[in-house]
Amino acid sequence: xxxxxxxxxLRAANDGERVTLCGWVQNRRDHGGLLFLDLRDRYGVxxxxxxxxxxxxxxxxxxxxxxxxxxxxxxxxxxxxxxxNKDRSTGQIExxxxxxxxxxxxxxxxxxxxxxxxxxxxxxxxxRYLEMRRPEVRNALETRARMNQIIREHMIAQAFVExxxxxxxxxxxEGARDYxxxxxxxxGSFYALPQSPQILKQILMVGGMDRYWQIARCFRxxxxxxxxxxxxxxxxIEMSFVExxxxxxxxxxxxxxxxxxxxxxxxxxSVRRMPYAEAVARYGTDKPxxxxxxxxxxxTEILQDCAFGVFSGAAKAGGRIRAIALGPEHPLSRKKxxxxxxxxxxxxxxxxxxxxxxxxxxxxxxxxxxxxxxxSGLTEALGLQEGGIALFLAGPSEVVVxxxxxxxxxxxxxxxxxxPARYELLWVVDFPLFAWNEDEQRLDAAHHPFTxxxxxxxxxxxxxxKSVRALAYDLVLNxxxxxxxxIRIHQHDVQSRVFxxxxxxxxxxxxxxxxxxxxxxxxxPPHGGCASGLDRLAASLLGLEQIxxxxxFPKTTSxxxxxxxxxxxxxxxxxxxxxxxxxxxxxxxxxxxxxxxIRSA
RNA sequence: GGGGAUGUAGCUCAAUUGGUUAGAGUACCGGACUGUCGAUCCGGAUGUUGCGGGUUCGAGUCCCGUCAUCCUCGCCA
Length: 601
Fold this sequence. Notes:
The longest helix is centred in the N-terminal third of the chain and has 23 residues, at 135-157. The relative contact order is 0.11. The protein has three domains: 12-104, CATH 2.40.50.140; 137-275 and 474-550, Bira Bifunctional Protein, Domain 2 (BirA Bifunctional Protein, domain 2); 292-414, GAD-like domain (Gyrase A, domain 2, 2-Layer Sandwich), CATH 3.30.1360. The two termini are 38 Å apart. 30% of the residues lie in helices and 22% in strands. Helix 4 (135-157) packs antiparallel against helix 6, helix 4 (135-157) packs across helix 16 and helix 14 runs antiparallel to helix 15 (506-520). With 601 residues, it is an alpha+beta fold. The chain has 19 helices and 21 strands. It has helices at residues 55-62, 121-126, 128-131, 135-157, 198-206, 244-263, 276-283, 300-303, 309-316, 334-344, 372-382, 397-414, 460-463, 492-501, 506-520, 534-542, 572-577, 587-590, 596-599, and strands at 18-30, 35-41, 44-49, 69-78, 93-104, 161-162, 180-182, 190-192, 211-219, 231-240, 273-275, 296-298, 320-326, 353-356, 389-395, 425-429, 434-437, 442-445, 472-477, 480-487, 527-533. The strands form five sheets. An eight-stranded mixed sheet has the order 6-9-10-21-20-19-16-11, with helices on both faces. The chain binds one RNA strand of 77 nucleotides through strand 1, strand 2, strand 3, helix 2 and helix 19.
């Protein structure tokens, strides 16, 4: 090693030892006859100092600038009390330089490596290796590594076998857009990158692997968000001869442990379960944030004949009226009330009606239309208190239900009810098996087409498929989905029936999933599993809103890698080799290329 | 594909109603200084105001287009 110690480990106990440190120059304080350098590496920061007694080392150190990589040798000296730095673990000592060499100089920096001000995200991505020197990014990556270690221990201890599945595999339509890879030896044919190893892990069960796990990279060519990258990482699990609870227990015990060991918060080891229907009814979403209350109440029955046209009109048209009650501890000014509709406009909700509950009478546009019976009905249903407010959304169910969820979350933010130190886990279970696709007038798989129906709902497959519930489950952490899975169909005939309901004919199923359906015919064990998005989970545990910082080399919202310049054009010879011909003007002709503006800087 | 925000020195930002030479901090370069830890002090250099077009006597500022980044709707079985 070029060093005897790291920059984070010397203490007063090392006084008098001769040591060698390597690191980046984080700061430089030149006093003329005396020069202080702060040397930084992954482990910490240590102050080194020059003294006139060693002029050669002093002259060499004098040349260095920020972020140069240097190596210094000298004796550890305990600092006088007045000169100790209490904010730093190595602050009791310093190293008096006897020898000093520059290992690597640095050009002036294009991004801020130290200090509280962080450079723009664009520059941070372009110069990711410099951002990575910042503690917040380094800490996130170290946290990911610890999570992986905990996961590995947990899975191995429970007899799971880690199996790698291919990155190049067959495109199986449905779901997200595939990333495609052209085949050279099979002109006109393509591999797809996995959206998840779903079919493969089920086939592993048919192969008798019994308990599989993998930290798997997944790829989906869809538009991005703060919590979505084109490639992301899942903890993938599949188990044979299990019932739903068996899968949930494996996953929840792991996530509870991660919350404890990563976030340092102790939470109950048994995670509560809530049917999908209840989650949607009470919280307007299938992933409720249970760190705060403010439940949504359906008041359609109470207000359906109301003199207020907005309410009765919605009810008569078959819609719903949903309300959230605010106690006197959550006051809203007229200005804030007027800003509420903007919070639900995304969902197509037209407005938010409100009434103030006062001793002398209710006020608000809707108040004067409410009969005494309606007022007492609302008071009881919503638990209204004097000094409080009732908020109402009215309209078609498919608008008002999700809008009520958005409104609740908006209020949670507004009143700062989302305690960042709290971790509320919840299993949402009994999801519907199918979702109605309005555009194409057919059923879609709500989870995926291999999800098993609830046994007691199987008869409904023929009579009322839309009301069939599934053995599917999502793990929700503070209002974010961090894992999801299902018990799978292991019977060939049931699988065929589901495909039929999804409008996938026998021929088409054969063409798309033939190899999988064939596998189900050769003794498939009952099985089920789960997958957890580790990027989001890591971000949640670190209290981050976006996942880029828990990924070493993330991409932009247009799926570009600003550091390497991917995606890029390729040599025409490569296209010829792949039997590909482009039908678009090349970027060279349009003069545009991703990252252009910044790379030319 | 739609909506919104942002783009000024290497970096973080400022610049009044459209007004004449676009500033500050920091980094960088030079100098002073023996106890700093955001060192301090003195001096210096640094600009295609993202790009293209337009309006105007005059544009960082107004208009149109475009590119990039971020947020978001659609999308993500």
